[in-house]
Amino acid sequence: MLTAHTIKTLQSLDKKKYRQKYNLFLVEGNKIIKELADSGYEIETIYSINPQNIDFRTTAIEEILPTELKKISFLQRPKDSVAVCKLPENKHLEDTPIQLILDGIQDPGNFGTIIRLADWFGIEQIICSSDTVDLYNPKVIQATMGSFARVNVFYTNLEAYLATYNNPIFGTDMTGQNLYKTSFPEKFSLVFGNEGNGIRPATESFIAQMISIPRFGEIQSTESLNVSMSASIILGEIFSKKSVGMR
Known about the structure:
With 247 residues, the chain is an alpha/beta fold. The chain is 30% helix and 23% strand. The longest helix is centred in the last third of the chain and has 19 residues, at 227-245. The mean pLDDT is 93.
């Protein structure tokens, strides 16, 4: 049975300051929790209404009641289990062929989806501005569907980082060069900006080429695409060209 103190602590983990205070974050649902088995994340405790359905035994598992699960879950419809995980030590930059750079992304769903896309296309690293939404926000974790365990997400001062980056940098906006007429090198970075304001001028100063997704519909009344939708289209095109080149 969960104590009132434990419930209060876990409920507070929807806020970054408490995640940092307790050095903990939550992962919900057996489907996502199982992704942690081969990751570098340390699980402190798993609380589950069906412990027998958890297919690995690497940590303490406590059985709880459905009513208790509702109290510690951040989902409208709580799943079967909640894993309490420790925040990792400071991550390190890796040398990857292609990486994404996020300049002030604020929506947890967008961020989580972009992480999932990166995982799908084999992009192992995402560089984030310091004000990008926190990776360990419960909504971000849920939207990644476990991909957060395979993609290195690194927060930094973008201006300082880009000043030392030696490969081509592409940016995304509404007026850039046609995506389908753009060639991409073997090694580069791709920047996506804030949902409402786009890429900041300070970041844009480091970008060699802006690209955009052209409209094809006759009635062009849609103002713009959601940033995660844009990411899926752009990455799909980049990797389709790569696959053609490999044939």
